[in-house]
């Protein structure tokens, strides 16, 4: 292998690594956006501050043992009237946990 071929091979590896990093960053940004939307929905529907709504989202995730991004996705999809194949199965876990977390938030906020 010539030095030019080695340089090209190294550049290809660098591009592949950057593509993986970009995909990871895009996924993280999408997740943050979805969680932000779900937080806003909870704040509006439960009349909570966004900080308290985020706590409700976090507790719902914890109580249901479902990742926060999946809880957020189920909530946003339910609001938008769209669904992915596993949303219904997750909703069975998320809804009771959301009710529990909401009751806790209501007790703390004095409503």
Automatic annotation (TrEMBL):
PROSITE patterns, per the entry: ANTAR
Entry keyword annotation includes Transferase: no
Pfam families assigned to the protein according to its UniProt record, in alphabetical order: ANTAR (PF03861)
Domain of life: Bacteria
Coiled-coil intervals, chain numbering: 1-28
Keywords, alphabetical: Coiled coil
Record domain ANTAR: where: 15-76
Protein name: ANTAR domain-containing protein
Originating species: Spongisporangium articulatum
């Amino acid at each position: 292998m010539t030095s030019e071929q080695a340089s090209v091979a190294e550049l290809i590896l660098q591009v592949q690594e950057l593509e993986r990093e970009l995909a990871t960053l895009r996924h993280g940004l999408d997740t943050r956006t979805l969680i932000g939307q779900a937080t806003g929905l909870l704040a509006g529907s439960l009349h909570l501050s966004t900080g308290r709504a985020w706590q409700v989202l976090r507790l719902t995730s914890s109580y249901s043992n479902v990742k926060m991004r999946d809880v957020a996705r189920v909530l946003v999809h339910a609001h938008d009237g769209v669904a992915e194949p596993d949303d219904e199965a997750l909703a069975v876990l998320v809804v009771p946990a959301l009710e529990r977390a909401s009751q806790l938030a209501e007790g703390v906020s004095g409503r």
